[in-house]
Design goal:
mainly alpha, 8 helices, elongated
Amino acid sequence: MSAGVMACSSSYQLDPGPLDRSVLIAQHTHRSRDIWDGKPDMILNTRKCDGNFWKLVKEYPIHQRVLDVIICAGFYGVYRSCRPSIDRSLITSLVERWRPETHTFHFRSGEATVTLQDVEVLYGLPVDGDAVIGYEPTRSIEQWHDGMMVELVDL
């Protein structure tokens, strides 16, 4: 029997799991569990939180002085990318392939991950220097503002 016929036969069972199942410590709650159990595909709902920002930008273009600050802070690549379109099927497919245990996507061709350098290249964001981290409740809004202005744009 040829491999093609074998793959089409009803006795052929595809096991999508790894050889060592102990690495999948979160499999019982993972999205891919539905696929393994033969449940029908469900496209995930997505939500965007940009509100009417891009509509407002189209209606009232950002002033050049504000753009200069965005450029100086290194966020112009994000601004220039405009309103992203959401491909729910692609997002669903990626969620199904993401493994939180290893922080990687699992594809037929192997594992892949998104690095900080990937984000830097795609959006032109500077990733060198100190990280902007956390929230300090002891700092006032003015202290945060002044600190970020110094840190981001040397003002």
